[in-house]
Amino acid sequence: MTTRWPSLVEFRRERLDLDPEYARLRAKAPVTRITLADGGRAWLVTGWEEARQVYSDPRFSRALAVADGEPTFIIDMDPPEHTRVRRTVAGAFTHRRVERMRPRVRELTAGLLDGMAAGGEPADPVQRLSLPLPVTVICELLGVPIEDRERFQSWSEAFLSVTAHTPEQIQDARRNLDGYLAGLIERRRAEPAADLLSALAGEDGLSERELVHLGVALLVAGHESTASQITNFAYTLLSRPERWRRLAGDPDLLPAAIEELLRYTPLGSETGLPRIAAQDVTLGGAAIGAGDTVLVARPAASRDPAVFADPDDLVLDRADNPHLAFGHGLHHCVGAHLARLELRAAFGGLLERFPGLRIAVPEAELRWKTGLVMRGPTALPVAWTAP
Known about the structure:
By secondary structure, this protein is α+β, with helices and mostly antiparallel strands. About 45% of the residues lie in helices and about 10% in strands. It has 15 helices and 10 strands. The protein has helices at about 20-30, 50-55, 80-90, 95-100, 100-120, 125-130, 130-140, 150-160, 165-190, 195-200, 210-240, 240-250, 255-265, 300, 335-355, and strands at about 5, 30-35, 40-45, 60, 275, 280-285, 285-290, 295, 360, 380-385. It has a 6-stranded mixed beta sheet. Helix 5 (about 100-120) packs antiparallel against helix 7 and helix 7 (about 130-140) runs antiparallel to helix 11. Keywords: Heme, Iron, Metal-binding, Monooxygenase, Oxidoreductase.
């Protein structure tokens, strides 16, 4: 027997809640046969252990799921191609190198919060902090002119569209991003600078298309995901004011709280990118055949009660937290250290400057992203003085 699943990308997405169907399926089995809206069939993974296996087992292939059979985005590659491409960029995101960026990230955060305070309330941290902080950081790291922000942000949104843009608009955005990065890379070859694009442009192990797509992936993922996380974490805490007050009163909790927010708060598509079984595999008691599609519900796996006590509660001081927010195995997010640095800087600054922060409008008035991979409010009006 199979379960009917309405969509490959999203299933009853309401605000930042997970559909309870995930938990019901996991209670029956960590791997479930499902039927998709288009009539296709797949396996849905909701168990933590099984999700880790899919992410780390080379028998589950991303490359086989790419339609044209020629993956050039790193997320779509299998080893050895993935290993070769990832090696060229991993050195820029080591813990030691990211730590060197801490003073600059704190400086940027302080300046943005100064502007937010000076602009008065209500303020929108989406525009004042969530977007400009990661955009500026990734632009400075890559060597992308910050004045081009409006151009590539509109392309990035279309690039990550599910239904908010037409297929033609999505293709146009991809071509524009490719052309934009190709032009920047060519300029860096002619005039190298102390930035990541210059370093990548000097690599001999990448094809031109791989190099351009790596630049696109770093630019888009480097700001869109963290921007959405800052906004979503702020909403998650401010819609539970007692959690915000606890963190404001005990800032030492922040590192553990960030990890718990990563575990608890969904970011984008619950089922992520499909993988194809390259051979017969047994997973969580399910016999998966070669050629079968496998989807991992990562947010659901990070709420597996076999691993996390009180999995549906936001426990700010959770001690043991092996969540899967950044994935696992060979596709573990290369920018995880940088994302954590930005998140801690953003919330450390917010909690210190605005301990009385609150959502300034009734929650029913908040508007949410639709038709995009990323989830979250489009704006989050806040105030900080006593009402």
